[in-house]
Design a protein that fits this description.
The complex is a heterotrimer of chains A (about 475), B (about 220) and C (about 950). Chain A has about 475 residues and is mainly α. Chain A has helices at about 1-20, 35-40, 50-75, 90-115, 125-145, 175-205, 210-220, 225-260, 270-300, 305-335, 340-350, 355-370, 375-380, 380-410, 425-445, 455-470. Chain C is globular, with a radius of gyration of 28 Å. The chains are: A mainly alpha (about 475), B mainly alpha (about 220), C alpha/beta (about 950).
Chain lengths: ~475, ~220, ~950
């Protein structure tokens, strides 16, 4: 009898221990609890050390290069790039698709995860949304820059012109314009709406009057009244509702720029889902690239915990598998479909064509690297994650390049086959856009609360409430 | 501590936000409205010619047919500007007199052309064919206005693509009433009886809306 | 593009007559009409002072003739506002029959070349014509070079001009001891020596392919080069269309356009070609039991032997209906063998006639390079007068001009440019372009062809005739001389039609003098470890066109090489030498060396190389300075077009060659591209909008067919298109970026043993065009008459259309290609075609300006269109491979041609429904 009870109690304790082992650590570590959280996020805004300035040097130089390269392109024409016939699209569109894809993770985190109320998003959504905005700034530059006559870009917008001619709505490009502008507007509003209460917090905590006034202007007179909070929450939810479908629609439309053509390697019905998966994939890679140094730099390991990294890594792995599946699909269907042009473009040309090294890099980074993330330890090791994320981030650029350039360089008529070589302007524009991103992101870290204080506090309130009841 | 902002700051803030929103809306609208004004299209421009030539006098008072001076209009893309000889055919009696005709005399003497200035200008990429219009029942006045009453000729129609295309899509209402009315000036044409349907039949008028009708 | 600025007009107009002044004004109007901006520059409108007799407001066509190597080709030149802007073949002229070669058409660019010499100079001082000639007046010459002019030496291009003949004769009577020499650059008189040996008199073979069932070409490219090639191509085309497949046997060193059509092709080094010719002669003679032909035993490789067997069999099967041709550059023994073969086969009088050469003093010593070399060498020349085109550059190694020029007390050069020759002569006179000249020339068959100017000399140039007249104290103008010396060519009728009737050379009855013939022995084979190098005429002829950007950028029909020449090698030889494309080789003969990059050509003969003439210009006054390698150091006057035992040393340097095509293999896509399943019945065209029979534009449904059995790849169409449509050149770097702008590109696919097929690729005007639905701004749309329209002024340059074009026939203005155009360059522009701005897409329009003009004409006439509408490419095509017209017009041949069982559409499986049909090649009878 007692023996049985002992056994049972023993089993129970074992099960308890097992549960204890399995249980995830809390999202935010005890250190991050309490009223000082707001201070810890706000104070860096005015207690920054001189070292900050040096961080800006390289991004500033690269941005300068970006501006120069843009100037050359506008003055001299697209001839300054390496593009040719047949490769009429190259770096420009590659960068565009890549950047806009990166943007997707931000919206995914802020909108999707909000609606699915994944609390862990609260620590990182501000960073992710900022990343989205700055990625979109870059993404917006390239489509206009790549036009032969950029000053006529507005012809893609449907408006009553004195020519009596409208855009061609059969083409995907006018829809691109609509999608991107919508996406940018919504992302900006969403980000700013979330920011307002924190700007108010900054206003109240700022040391000097000038600072208080500046933050005050941007806080739009937020007083945090219950009424304001209620409207704020409604607004926030509405924008989230608007943004969520955009995560799917924008990159689907971007993918149509390729899949509505009949070019082998573009002419494919799986592109929309494939591109969306790829977009979130590259986006999460970049989120991790940003989170890891930031939490280290500000000593926010307890706010952005290994658990956050783990969750991001899991999403990275998931989307990575989707991308892998798409590669598999493409290749298999090219072979199974039996169309000689498709077979050549997607199998032969990628295996032995002039761009096989880019293809190899893309396969290595996008298929092999994420497999590391099956291991929990690696998912929680910041350094490994950072390296893996960076590789994937670059691998996704290679993917866009492969799809665009490799397919164009060898299509139907062998006599037309030519290879593309980037010019110095091409390379400057790519590195320059990365520089501009870095510049904007540093500025954001320097002058804007990088973690959503209000949402963190709300989350804490909830979790402490749970603690009391539970 | 003192308030950061005066009470009216709120009003201003709202003003700025609303004003900004309206501006975003209104600027393009204003631009689109502007290009539709006659000023934006340069209809007001008065061109100084080397000779103070009066269409009102020649085409109006003397009722000279347009084709007398613009003689290539029926078989060439260009209407044709009159050679100096053409002026002299009538102006010989006045040969010795009138200082205004000096350019004509010098032109004849030196063999250098009279540099007339363009009044009705189309963009370079528009291939307009006078003959095709005139010999298909489009009156001179339809595009050049009633020059018989213009001492100094000005552009009187928008000359926007929309304006061209409207007629190319639906030419019939724009035709004059009678073949005779095509090249005589509008003022006299108005007095002629209308037989437009017969005219359409005679000229076999069609829509020409292909881009390469004008852009080549 | 900036409008013609008025200063330029005044500066240019200063020394021009009223006619040219109006030409320039016309140009300025045209330019005001082609600039890209919306608000026009306020350019004045210039009316005439006195209306011209004809053609105010319309464009005019004039018949004239262009002489090359002394033989004339009749041309029709289109003139707008006093500016010649397009050159086409003269249908009435025997050497053209309406076709025009690349050189003829591109010569137009030469007229407007800003690099042309603009003033007469003596020792650097600018003078006027008469002042410059003062020291060359008859008394001056007599006083300088003896009463009988013993010290006077004239060097001319070979010419057949009756005017020149008259003036030269007069000069000779005035200066009996003066010597006259004719300097040959790309063809030799060997054929005359051969016929003299065979017949006892020097005669030219006049080949008539219009009823030849078998053609054997030895070292010849009868369809694409030589003074009579346009006629050959015309006749061949007609013949091929009527009887199906002409049996074409070609033995050649470097793959030629003719060779690409051959049913039986042999790649052989020049020396081997002689052996082959003799072996063929021997074989035919034996078969016919003619003992008189004595040929020393010839050893051939099995491949060569097989070729000879096949050729002999076909020849014997078609006696009287076959012909054997040798190239202008072939050595004498080949020409002799060919002459004997035609005689044995009884072809003389049927497929080949023999006529006296129209050239002045043909077959005379005055044509021999060694005689000229001797004369120049003897130092007795006190007055050297050169009208030949730049002999200092074109002459072979052992015919030095520079030294004699400097040695002569007085030297005079009448030239187009301040070139190598101008640099070493004391007096320079600018030569008038033939489009600025009055004169008369003779075609290969002797027909007199009037030359009339389209524009008065732009840079005070004068003709050879005017110079010769001036030398004998006759200051009359070209027109006066023409009227005086050749009145028949100055009649209104002759000038209108471009020919003088019944001036054709009479054909001579010929009998072979068998007894006089020696034993024919093949040349000794060259030493191994060296190669033979042949020097064919390049894309820029003998170098006189090396400043011509159209020709420099025109891809070579065989190698697709632009802006360069290179040593063409067979793959075997290249492997033996261990070189690949672009490796620079040092070529050494005796002590003379040159360096040239190697280019491997499938189907090139082994143990030999080909290096085209006309490159490696060193002199001033040409844009082509230092482009390519000069051949002169390797060449010897004795055999100017082949040099044996040339040593090749790999230098290890690299040279970038701008080749427009990277892949010669068709990658297993023949069935889709060049031999598609014939369209069973022509599917009903998709009419966009208006139904057929509607008498708007919809009445016509434009389409084109291209016969791959007739396309030699000669590329005349590419130049025609470039001239008609204001297509810019992009230069070597542009080509290296694969940004060439040619709307028409000739794809070439080669199989093993170098048999090749050429496929002109242009906008296919798909009825379901992939480019149209992807354009975001409706800049490319479909017309009622089935054209794929490109609206430049609507294009914003997304280039989406190009990406979705399976044929990749769209071209993009990557930068402003008209930036460097000078006001003079711009006179060339066709005012009917918009000059495209930077950043817009462009492509073949089926010459829409011609279509619309024709439709407008018929509308004005109030009657349906009569007669065909001809596109620029179709007009120029020598073999008539291109047929264009309306599918709905019974008069147009295109409908029938598109219904041909051989008709197919490229990449038909994509469902683009192209309006261009290709006629696949007929299979050779096994």
């Amino acid at each position: 009898m007692t023996a049985l009870a002992d056994v049972l109690s023993q089993r129970a304790s074992e099960r308890a221990q097992a549960r204890a082992q399995l249980a995830e650590p809390p999202l935010i570590l005890p250190g991050a609890r309490g009223a000082d959280l707001a201070l810890r996020i706000i104070t860096p805004l005015w207690t920054a050390r001189r070292a900050w300035r040096f961080l800006f040097i390289v991004p500033l130089l690269l941005t300068g290069l970006f501006v120069v390269a843009m100037g050359v392109t506008l003055v001299q024409g697209i001839g300054a790039w390496g593009n040719n016939i047949p490769v009429a699209w190259a770096f420009g569109i590659t960068n565009f698709v890549w950047w806009i894809g990166i943007g997707h993770a931000g919206t995914f985190i802020s909108a999707f995860l909000l609606l699915l109320n994944q609390e862990w998003r609260n620590s990182i959504n501000r960073l992710a949304e900022a990343m989205t905005l700055f990625a979109l700034v870059n993404a917006g530059v390239f489509p206009i820059l790549h036009l032969g006559r950029p000053w006529l870009a507005y012809w893609l917008i449907p408006y009553p012109a004195t020519t009596g001619v409208w855009p061609n709505f059969l083409s995907s490009l006018p829809w691109d314009v609509a999608a991107i502008t919508t996406y940018f507007t919504v992302s900006l509003l969403f980000w700013y709406t979330g920011l307002v209460p924190d700007l108010a917090t900054a206003r109240d905590a700022a040391p000097t009057r000038l600072r208080r006034q500046i933050y005050g202007i941007f806080a739009l007179g937020w007083r945090g009244s219950g009424d304001a909070w209620r409207q704020h929450r409604i607004m926030y939810a509405l924008l989230a509702g608007l943004a969520t479908p955009l995560v799917i629609s924008v990159h689907s439309i971007v993918s149509l720029d390729f899949s509505i053509t009949q070019l082998p390697g573009w002419h494919s019905t799986i592109f929309p889902p494939f591109f969306v998966a790829g977009a979130i994939y590259s986006g999460f890679a970049m989120v991790l690239m940003l989170l890891i140094p930031v939490r280290r730099f500000f000593g926010w390991e307890d706010i952005i915990t290994e658990r956050h990294l783990d969750l991001c890594a899991r999403l990275l792995l998931t989307t990575g598998l989707m991308v892998a599946y798409s590669y598999l699909c493409e290749t298999f269907l090219a072979w199974y479909g039996g169309d000689p042009f498709e077979r050549y473009a997607l199998i032969t040309n990628r295996a032995v064509g002039p761009y096989r090294w880019v293809v190899a890099a893309m396969m290595g980074c996008n298929l092999l690297v994420p497999q590391l993330l099956w291991w929990r330890r690696l998912r929680r090791s910041p350094l490994t994650l950072f390296i893996a994320a960076t590789l994937i981030w670059a691998g996704m650029w290679c993917e866009r390049f492969t799809i665009i350039v490799a397919s164009l360089s060898r299509d139907f008529v062998p006599a037309n086959w030519q290879t593309f070589h980037p010019s110095w302007v091409d390379i400057s524009l790519l590195t320059g856009s990365i520089g501009l991103f870095a510049l904007l992101f540093l500025a954001f870290l320097r002058w804007v609360p990088a973690v959503s204080i209000s949402e963190m506090q709300a989350q804490q309130a909830r979790s402490s409430g749970d603690a009391r009841h539970g | 501590m003192a308030a950061l902002f005066p009470p009216r700051a709120t009003k201003w803030g709202r003003g700025v936000l609303i004003g900004g929103g309206l501006a975003l809306l209104l600027v393009p609208v204003a631009a689109m409205a502007w290009v539709r004004t006659s000023w934006a299209r340069g209809e007001h421009i008065v061109v100084q010619q080397p000779i103070p030539f009066s269409h009102a006098l020649h085409a109006g008072t003397f009722a000279i047919d347009c084709r007398f001076c613009h003689s290539e209009v029926e078989w060439s893309a260009n209407a044709g500007m009159p050679p100096t000889d053409r002026c002299v055919t009538c102006h010989t009696p006045l040969w010795r007199s009138t200082a205004v005709l000096t350019p004509v005399r010098t032109s004849l003497a030196t063999g250098t052309p009279i540099p007339w200035r363009r009044v009705t200008q189309l963009p370079a990429f528009v291939y307009f064919n006078h003959a095709m219009h005139v010999s298909n029942g489009v009156a001179c006045a339809t595009c050049h206005g009633d020059v018989a009453h213009m001492t100094v000729v000005r552009q009187v129609v928008p000359l926007t693509m929309q304006w061209c295309v409207d007629c190319h899509r639906d030419p019939w209402p724009h035709l004059p009433s009678q073949p005779a009315a095509v090249t005589v000036v509008a003022s006299q044409a108005s007095s002629l009886p209308t037989a437009r349907t017969g005219l359409i039949a005679e000229y076999r008028i069609h829509q020409f809306t292909n881009c390469t009708t004008c852009h080549r | 593009m900036p409008p013609l600025n008025s200063d330029a007009v005044r500066q240019i107009a200063a020394d021009l007559s009223r006619r040219d002044f109006l030409a320039l004004l016309g140009a300025s109007m045209a330019l005001a009409g082609v600039t890209g901006c919306v608000r026009e520059p306020d350019e004045p409108v210039y009316p005439y002072v006195h209306p011209p007799d004809a053609g105010a407001g319309t464009d005019l066509h004039f018949a004239t003739a262009m002489a090359l190597d002394g033989y004339a080709t009749g041309l029709v030149v289109r003139s707008v506002g006093g500016r010649p802007i397009k050159i086409e073949g003269n249908p009435l002229h025997p050497a053209s029959h309406g076709a025009a070669g690349a050189l003829h058409q591109a010569s137009l660019l030469g007229l407007y070349d800003p690099a042309r010499a603009r003033a007469a100079t003596t020792n650097g001082r600018t003078l006027n014509w008469s002042a410059a000639l003062r020291s060359f007046s008859l008394p001056a010459l007599r006083q300088l070079a003896g009463q009988r002019g013993a010290g006077v030496c004239l060097v001319l291009d070979p010419t057949a001009s009756p005017v020149t003949a008259f003036l030269l004769a007069r000069l000779r009577t005035a200066l009996p001891d003066a010597t006259v020499h004719f300097h040959h650059t790309i063809e030799s008189a060997t054929v005359l020596d051969a016929t003299r040996m065979a017949f006892g008199q020097p005669l030219l073979p006049l080949v008539d392919l219009s009823n030849a069932a078998t053609i054997v070409a030895i070292g010849a490219d009868p369809l694409a080069s030589g003074p009579w090639h346009l006629r050959h191509a015309r006749d061949f085309g007609a013949r091929q269309r009527s009887i199906g497949r002409v049996q074409l046997h070609v033995a050649e060193t470097s793959p030629s356009p003719t060779g690409s059509l051959a049913s039986n092709r042999l790649a052989a080094a020049p020396s081997v070609l002689s052996s082959v010719a003799l072996a063929l002669l021997d074989r035919v003679a034996r078969q016919q039991g003619v003992a008189a032909v004595r040929v020393a035993p010839v050893t051939l490789t099995s491949m060569a032997a097989a070729w000879v067997d096949a050729a002999a069999a076909d020849l014997l099967a078609h006696r009287r209906a076959s012909v054997v041709v040798a190239g202008d550059q072939a050595p004498q023994d080949v020409h002799l063998a060919v002459t004997l073969l035609n005689a044995l086969l009884d072809n003389a009088g049927h497929t080949v006639r023999y006529v006296p050469s129209p050239l002045l003093d043909a077959g005379d010593r005055s044509h021999r390079a060694d005689v000229l070399a001797e004369r120049l060498g003897d130092g007795g020349t006190s007055a050297l007068i050169i009208t030949a085109s730049n002999p200092v550059y074109t002459a072979p190694f052992d015919l030095p001009f520079a030294a004699p020029c400097q040695r002569a007390t007085q030297s005079l050069y009448l030239g187009d440019y301040h070139d190598e020759t101008a640099a070493v002569t004391q007096t320079f006179l600018p030569h008038a372009h033939y489009l600025e000249s009055w004169g008369a020339e003779r075609a290969y068959n002797g027909v007199i062809s009037p030359v009339q100017p389209l524009i008065a000399p732009m840079w005070s140039g004068h003709t050879v005739d005017e110079l010769l007249a001036a030398l004998s104290g006759d200051a009359r103008s070209g027109l006066a001389l023409l009227k005086a010396c050749c009145p028949a060519a100055a009649t209104a009728d002759a000038l209108r039609r471009g020919i003088v009737d019944s001036t054709e050379a009479p054909s001579h009855a010929t009998t072979i003098r068998w007894s006089a013939l020696p034993v024919l022995a093949p040349p000794a084979l060259p030493r191994s470890h060296t190669i033979e190098v042949a020097f064919p005429a390049g894309g820029v002829h003998d170098g006189r066109f090396s400043g011509n950007a159209w020709l420099q950028e025109l891809p070579d029909p065989t190698t697709k090489l632009t802006w360069d020449n290179a040593l063409l090698l067979g793959s075997g030889t290249a492997a033996r030498l261990g070189v690949s494309n672009g490796d620079v080789l040092e070529l050494r003969v005796d002590r003379a060396t040159i360096t040239a990059p190697a280019l491997i050509v499938p189907g090139h003969a082994e143990d030999s190389g080909s290096l085209s003439l006309g490159y490696g210009r060193r002199g001033p006054g040409t844009r082509a300075r230092l482009i390519g390698a000069s051949t002169a150091p390797l060449r010897r006057a004795a055999s100017p077009f082949t040099t044996e035992s040339v040593q090749c040393v790999v230098t290890g340097q690299q040279h970038t060659l701008a080749v427009t095509q990277q892949h010669w293999s068709i990658a297993g896509r023949a069935s889709e591209l060049i031999a598609g399943a014939p369209a069973k019945a022509l599917p009903a065209p998709l009419y966009h909008g208006t139904p057929p029979g509607h008498d708007g534009f919809g009445a016509d449904q434009w389409a084109m067919t291209i016969d791959l059995d007739l396309c030699t790849g000669c590329s005349a169409c590419v130049v025609a298109c470039q001239a008609e449509n204001n297509i810019p050149v992009v230069g070597k770097t542009g080509v290296l970026h694969s940004r060439e702008m040619h709307w028409m590109r000739i794809a070439r696919y080669t199989g093993d043993n170098g048999n090749a097929i050429s496929q002109p690729m242009l906008c296919q005007h798909c009825e379901d065009a992939p480019c149209e639905y992807v354009c975001p701004v409706n800049a490319t749309v479909h017309s009622d008459d089935g054209l794929n329209e490109m609206v430049y002024n609507r294009c914003v340059g997304t280039r989406f259309c190009s990406n979705n074009c399976p044929y990749k026939v769209r071209r993009f203005n990557w930068v402003n290609y008209h930036e460097e155009m000078t006001p003079v360059d711009e006179l060339l522009n066709n005012p009917d075609v918009t000059v495209r701005a930077r950043g817009v897409m462009e492509k073949c329009t089926f010459c829409v300006q011609r279509l619309r003009t024709a439709q407008e004409r018929s509308a004005l006439a109030g009657a349906p269109r009569t007669g065909p509408v001809v596109t620029a490419c179709q007009q120029s095509c020598p073999t008539g491979a291109i047929i264009f017209g309306s599918l709905t017009n019974p008069d147009d041949a295109v409908a029938a041609s598109a219904a041909d069982p051989r008709a197919f559409r490229a990449l038909d499986s994509l469902g683009t429904r192209p309006r261009v049909h290709y006629l696949t090649r007929r299979k050779d009878p096994a």
